[in-house]
Each structure stands twice: as structure tokens, then as C-alpha cells.
Amino acid sequence: MEESNNSSEKGFLLLGFADDPQLERILFVIILLFYILNILGNTAIILVSYLAPILHTPMYFFLSNLSCVDICFTTSVAPQLLVTMNKKEKNMSYGGCVAQLYVAMGLGSSECILLAVMAYDRYAAVCRPLQYITIMHPQLCASLAIIAWLSGLITSLIQCSLTVQLPLCGHRKLDHIVCEVPVLIKLACVDTTINEIELFVASVIFLIVPVSLILVSYGFITKTVLRIKSAAGRRKAFGTCSSHLIVVIIFYGTIIFMYLQPAKSSSKNQGKFVSLFYTIVTPVLNPIIYTLRNKDVKGALRTLVMRNVLVSKNT
């Protein structure tokens, strides 16, 4: 009993990239830069979507929710990761690890559902343009956003609660960069078949099903766009949807690799870099892709900046 309680008393050792100090220093600078860009970029999207009347549409409502998820998701990982990388002792308290486990799992799951909801919004906009306002009415948009947030909360409570109950028999060394369910399952000293099955089922629900719905949506979108006779119309439709599709491919591709591989499989540094990608890199790509490829957002930003400049001059 004393040995099994060792992890909860002393916490964990997050090994990360400690065996390569030079790489760790480089990654520290990159992660810090990406975290700052994430906060600035996603906050800008939330503010401009709220302040610019032209962006008061379902697409930007969901994009604001996505930006909020991304800020919270990365914040649940990046600060702790930076602190751990910057000290010799790679300790993380048991409570801190469990908190990170619940928060990151919930927010990551919510993002999976949000991306699927955004694909449905794009399907309605491109394939049912005349009925779009009727289909995507404010009540439905609010309900879909609430479902996305609540589904993440529920799966986190179920999945993480099952994981933290696993006895670790004093094992403290996590050969990873953050506390994640697959990593803790590997650390368990009992049969984890039930946990692995539960993780697989949850991964299918939150990864495979949304990806399938997204691919079906974009199949209909592509079919509709190809019927547009105007080349300019086709470019506009593809431009609007390609941004979302790029984010989907990057996010789901990396997270599926992490969560749908066998829990006991060995992929040492590969798994660490994959986790870095969907927790640190992808949330930064969202504001970059959506703003640089979107005339409405760029126009709204310019209008708000000019308005603030004129107000400051007058005062």
C-alpha cells in the first residue's frame, strides 16, 4: 500500500526531452513563442468576431468558440511544460497532473466536436444557401456549442476518472511531456484491457465519427462547388472551406495517431512531438489560417484598427 501511494505523495517525473538538453532549450523558445502567438491570435479572433457586426454569423460564432477552446487547451499544457523544461528537477505534483489530465482531455474532446459542427455549418452555407439562415438559426448555434462543451466535460469525467483509479505501484517516471491518458495507462501495473477498450471507444466517438461526418460534408460541398459555373464563385467557395479543412487534417491526423495506437506500443520521441503538435502548434494555426485566408476577417480588423486610431486622435 505504501508503494502504491508513492506516486500520489511524491508526484511524477516528466522526462520529456531531458536526455537532450540542447533540443530542450530550442523547444523551450519555440513553445514560448507559439504560446504567445496563440494567446494574441485567438484573442484577436474572439474580439474582432464580437466587435465587428459583419462577423456576427454562425461561422464566426463557432470560430470564436474554437479560439476560446484553443486558448484554454494550450494554457492547460504550455505553462507547466515551460516551467518543467526550465528546471533540473522535472517534478510535477500528482494533483497538477490529474488537473491537467481532466482539463486537457475535456477541451481536446470539445474541439473535436466543434470542428465537426463547423463542417456542418460550411455544408449548410455552400449546399443550402437559400435556407442557410433558417437552418443555422441562433438557437441551434447556441445548442450545438453547448453540446460541444458539455460532451468534452462528460468524456473527461468518465475517461480520466477511470484512468486515475489505476494503481501505479510507485511508478513515477512519465516518459512524456504532459499528463495524458495513454501515457498513464502505460504506467499502470495491472491489466489495463478495460481502460484500453474504453479509450478506443471514446476515440472512435470523438475522432473517427466527427472525421467521417466532416468528410461526408466536404464530399457534398465539393459536389456542389463543382456545379458552380463562375470560376470566381468556385474559388470563393473553396477558399472559405479549405481553411477549415486544413485545420481538420492537421488536428485530427496528429491526435488520431496518439490515441488510436495501442497503449503499450513504443514510440518514444515520436509520441512527444505528436503531442506538441496538437497541443501547441495547431491552436496557433487556427487564427493564422482563418485570418490570412479570409477577406472578411482582414477587412474587419482593418476597420477596427482605423476606428481606434481615429478615436485616439480625436481624444
From TrEMBL:
One of its GO terms (molecular function) is G protein-coupled receptor activity. Keywords: Cell membrane, G-protein coupled receptor, Membrane, Olfaction, Receptor, Sensory transduction, Transducer, Transmembrane, Transmembrane helix. SUPFAM superfamilies: Family A G protein-coupled receptor-like. Pfam families: 7tm_4. The keyword Transmembrane helix applies. GO terms for cellular component: plasma membrane. Residues 41-290 form the G-protein coupled receptors family 1 profile domain. It is found in: Cell membrane. Gene3D superfamilies: Rhodopsin 7-helix transmembrane proteins. InterPro entries: GPCR_Rhodpsn, GPCR_Rhodpsn_7TM, Olfact_rcpt. The chain crosses the membrane at residues 26-52, 59-79, 99-120, 140-158, 200-221, 242-261, 273-292. Putative odorant or sperm cell receptor. This is Olfactory receptor.
